């Protein structure tokens, strides 16, 4: 009756390739934790504001807990950043080298090539000179 593969009807779901790679598991769990803590902080701040407007005795404890949860939320966001940095340091990050690093590498390669060429030339000259001396003595 309601066949999705009917002619002329577009599919309901089309898979698209991901534009960015998935976050590593430790970073993702830290990010989820940070979002939960931040949402609770926002809820606490709203409750503190409403109790202050109502003049309730709960206003002061809610403000104190709001301040404490703000500190915890800041810590959770920093935890995401630190976890991401640690992950990148331990497991490497896929990136292109900067132009200055590339330039230094080129210069080092060029110096190594020149040193090898100089060694080969010195070895050739030494062999050639030795062969010339032997021929002249004979």
Give the topology string: H per helix, E per strand: HHH
Question: Uncertain regions: pLDDT < 50 for 5+ in a row?
Answer: none
Count of helical regions: 3
Largest sheet: none
Please bin the fraction of helical residues: over 70%
How does this structure look, described?
The protein is built from three helices and no strands. The protein has 138 residues and is mostly helical. The radius of gyration is 35 Å and the shape is elongated. It starts with 24 loop residues before the first helix and ends with a helix.
What order do the helices and strands come in, and which of them pair?
Layout: H1 25-54, H2 59-91, H3 99-137
Helix pairs in contact: 1-2
What would a concise description of this structure say?
The protein has 138 residues and is an all-alpha fold. Helices cover 74% and strands 0% of the residues.
Features of this protein?
138 residues; mainly alpha; 3 helices; 0% strand
